[in-house]
Amino acid sequence: MSEQLGAQFLPGVEMEWAECDFCGMPDGRLLFEGGDRLHGLPGRFRFVECQTCGWIRQNPRPTLQSIGVYYPDEYEPYIRAIEDEAGVMRRWGRRYGMWKRCRAVMRHVANGRLLDVGCATGVFLNAMRRQGEWDVYGVEPNVGAAHYARQRFNLSVHIGILEQAESLFSPASFDAVTMWNVLEHLHRPVLDIRRIHRLLKEDGLFVFTIPNIESLEARWFGPSWIGWDLPRHLYLFPQTRLSDQLSSLGFTLVARQCLSGSYGAFVMSLKQLLNERPTASAHWPTALLGTLRSWPAQVLAAPFFWLVNLANRATVITLFARKNRT
User: Fold this and answer.
1) Which end of the chain is more exposed for a tag (fewer CB within 10 A), N or C?
2) ∠ CA 171-174-180 to the nearest 5 degrees?
């Protein structure tokens, strides 16, 4: 398969062709091809758009057994505890962002039993446990991140994927299940949504964050937009049909919200764009990005990106769906 694609992949990577997980259609309209812009790992990948349901998927894609090599230790979600950050402002920013995430969930469910799928190093689960009456559990396929969550926070985290962990929990036993920037990474997202449906109590809450294909940054940066993140992102989900599609899977969409991250995503997308465009000087892009990352620049840009979040046009959007009553 690798030779047929004409690209050099990392050792051990196997590629597969995949039909659309929502509607089963084998074909799709090619959107673009590209490499790993975030980490620069070898390989050539492509996104196609399903002409039946609108879902965007990577096709062909690395298999479930081999895609792990594209998640290096420095991959951003594998971050350490907030208290271990050296900078005061960095700690404050992360603590505020995590508080917003927790409060967003608790607007819909005040307390109960919560499962975080793809919990990474457990920072969110630890924050939720501190909010009050929450009994928290996690599932994480990365061994190092899962061990960190267990040892640093003493959390109950299963190492593996949801398919492997589902049998550990009773059906209809969770008040909330969260997936923060996970659904787009799954080979079979529909199957996992059905698993979550089985694990949730009646009226239970499913919270998931996905790249917002309708964001301003997606429009501005095109293939350089950080939300594409080839080859780690396998699916993207246009908002126009998602409410009806969730309904067919047993959920009612009750809210959408851009919680955070718009400015950071803007800077990361700009960095990827600049990396792909040779310039006369190698210094000014570095200087520009350094300026944009400074606190004064972030403060000046805050009102604009606050409006972007308010309009639900940020790079990342969070959806809140309730399990339908039977």
Assistant:
1) C
2) 115
The Cα–Cα gap between 138 and 146 comes to 9
303 vs 298: CA distance, rounded Å: 10
Q: Where are the alpha helices (DSSP H) in the chain?
A: 2-5, 88-106, 123-129, 143-153, 162-165, 189-199, 216-221, 242-248, 262-275, 283-292, 295-310
The answer to whether residue 104 scores a pLDDT higher than 70 is yes
**Which tokens sit at 120?**
């990474």
**Could you identify the residue written with the tokens 């997308």?**
269
The pLDDT tens digits for 175-197 are 999 999 999 999 999 999 999 99
- Using a 10 angstrom Cβ sphere, with 0-12 exposed, 13-18 middle and 19 or more buried, the burial of residue 308 is buried
Range of the domain at 160: 82-264+302-323
For the entire predicted model, the pTM comes to 0.92
For the chain, what is the total number of helices (H) and then of strands (E)? 11, 13
